[in-house]
Amino acid sequence: MLIRIDPRATEPIYVQIEREVRRAIAAGEVSAGDRLPAARDLASSLEVNMHTVLRAYTELREAGVIDLRRGRGAVVLPQEATAPEVTRAVADLIETARRHGIPLSQLHQALDEGAQP
Asked: Which Pfam families does its entry note (predicted)?
C-alpha cells in the first residue's frame, strides 16, 4: 500500500492519510484482515509526527473501517460492498468536478456539507 501526502495542501495531513487508506481499500490494495503499517513506521516513512498517523487511524476506527488495538495494530475490517449505482454516481460526480476544475478537496468538503442534516 502506497500512501502519498502533500504537506503543502490545505487539507490536514491526518485527513490525507485517512483518505489514502480508504482509497487503498477501495482499490483492493489491502483487504479485510490485512494489517496496516504500524503508526510509528508509517509516520517515519511519511516524515510526519506519529500522533498525526494515530489520529488518522482513530478516525478510521470510529468510521468502522479498521480495528485498532494496542499491541495488535491496525487491521482492516470487512466492508459492505458499495451498490453499483452509487459507484457509477461517484464516478460521474468526480468526472463532472474535473471538467469544471473543482479540486478533490473542495469536492470532499461539498460532500461533507451536503451530508449534514
From this structure: GntR
Over residues 90-98, the mean pLDDT reads: 90
Q: What are the tens digits of pLDDT across the range 18-71?
A: 999 999 998 889 999 999 999 999 999 999 999 999 999 999 999 999 999 888
Prediction pTM value: 0.72
SS3 72: coil
DSSP per residue over 2-69, as a string? Answer: -----TTSSS-HHHHHHHHHHHHHHTTSS-TTPBPPPHHHHHHHHTS-HHHHHHHHHHHHHTTSEEEE
CA 30, 35, 39, 43 dihedral sign is negative
Helix (H) or strand (E) holding 76: strand 73-76
Q: Grid coordinates representing 38?
A: 504500524
Q: How far apart are CA 99 and CA 115, in angstroms?
A: 23
60 inside domain: yes
Residue 54 sits in the same domain as residue 103: no
Residue 6 inside a domain? The answer is no
